[in-house]
Design goal:
CATH class of the largest domain: Alpha Beta
Helix content: 40-55%
CATH architecture of the largest domain: 3-Layer(aba) Sandwich
Strand order of the largest sheet: 5-3-1-6-7-8-9
Largest sheet: 7 strands, parallel
CATH topology of the largest domain: Rossmann fold
Shape: globular
Number of helices: 15
Distance between the termini: 19 Å
Number of domains: 2
Radius of gyration: 21 Å
Structural class: alpha/beta
Strand content: 15-25%
């Protein structure tokens, strides 16, 4: 069967993009055909995948997304009789993979009152309503129970169209035990010794991932702890703002920022602690990746997969409403007890749960199942 996948941009290191690619590959392996409509593509294109670069431009992101939607709508034409799978909220979709959190929840709790009067607010509200309002027939694949709660709160009546997916961690992240030797090259690369406590954060979109919170928490540590800390940030985003913040906090020599990379298993073994105080995160695969690699984690309850950290007992979760002082205290306490804690062993044990690795297969099953129902409905038209 032929499918049309819609994603605004593809690059190898985004969580949304990684989910998209793994699902697309699973669908291709099952003999399906896939057209991908996107504004840009970085990296290799899988065999048998037809990537269509949408040739539109605009001065603003809102304008760009509207032109993308219109162009794709015209391009699909009669192809809209096939199943359209979106990895961002927008019109045209038959199935939406919920890579992002609820926009209305973010607008209410993370934006000022003025935001509701902006063009950006009106656009994203309209595009989210196209997927979730009462008249929509879009089937939605969710990553976390947190998303289910938020969408049902802001869009009563959508519950029957929401389908929970299991996590989809790559099995190469699973280990039998910690192996610091795997991280030796990483430490040499950034110039830190074996005795230095290496705090790792991975994620593209530094503002949303709470990099400012991480730097503030490290700066708050007492001198005897802080002097032996190095913070390594990996991700794809503009870093100038955070380089300046590190300088303001007196951390310049203790911060390394590197672009996204493929040697994540080595990074997880090189580090002593993962810090991930995101403002908002639909899931947060990196939390589970760190857990099953035996790397202790400090994250925030705003992350969809934070409940896995609590369930696995592989680290600590900073509660909501977020308070910087609370994060500071939790980081201090974790660093003080790293040597005696059971977080690492508990995470490795949690990684033996096979359901942590099945998201692409489950998503493909749901997409194919819904596409068959959709085909029968469209045939009756």
């Amino acid at each position: 069967m032929k499918y049309s996948f819609l994603i605004y941009t593809y690059f190898p290191y985004g969580g949304q993009q990684r989910d998209f690619l793994r699902i697309a590959k699973e669908m291709l392996d099952r003999g399906n055909e896939i057209d991908v409509y996107t504004l840009s593509w970085q990296g290799d294109i899988p065999a048998n995948m037809n990537v269509i670069l949408v040739p539109v431009k605009a001065f603003t992101r809102v304008g760009l997304y509207k032109r993308f939607t219109k162009w794709v709508e015209n391009a699909l034409g009669l192809k809209h009789r096939t199943c359209v799978v979106g990895f961002t909220k927008m019109p045209l979709l038959d199935i939406y993979f919920a890579a992002d959190p609820c926009f209305m929840e973010k607008a209410e709790h993370q934006r000022g009152g003025y935001y509701k009067y902006t063009r950006r607010y009106r656009h994203f509200k309209e595009y989210e309503r196209a997927v979730f309002n009462g008249s929509s027939k879009v089937e939605v694949l969710l990553l976390s129970p947190q998303q289910h709660t938020a969408f049902c709160h802001y869009y009563p009546g959508c519950d029957s169209r929401l389908h929970q997916l299991p996590p989809g961690i790559s099995k190469d992240r699973k280990v039998e035990k910690r192996d610091p030797g795997m991280g030796d090259q990483i430490r040499r690369e950034i110039g830190v010794s074996d005795e230095t406590v290496l705090i790792l954060q991975i994620g593209s979109g530094f503002r949303v991932k709470g990099v400012d919170r991480s730097l503030e928490a490290i700066a708050s540590l007492p001198p005897y702890l802080k002097q032996n800390i190095h913070y390594l940030l990996i991700g794809q985003d503009k870093s100038n703002r955070f380089v300046k913040l590190a300088a303001t906090l007196g951390l310049t020599s203790q911060v390394t920022i590197l672009p996204g990379r493929d040697d994540v298993p080595n990074l997880l073994q090189a580090a002593d602690l993962m810090l991930h105080p995101a403002y908002s995160e639909s899931a947060g695969y990196v939390l589970l990746e760190a857990t099953i690699a035996g790397l202790p984690i400090l994250t925030t309850a705003s992350c969809g997969y934070a409940f896995h950290i609590e369930k696995a007992r592989s680290g600590e979760v900073c509660p909501l409403p977020f308070q910087q002082q609370k994060l500071n205290e939790m980081l201090f306490n974790m660093l003080e007890t790293l040597e005696t804690s059971n977080w690492s062993c508990a995470g490795i044990e949690y990684g033996k749960n096979e359901n942590l690795y099945t998201m692409p297969e489950a998503a493909a099953d749901m997409i194919e199942g819904n596409a068959k129902k959709l085909k029968r409905i469209k045939t009756r038209w």
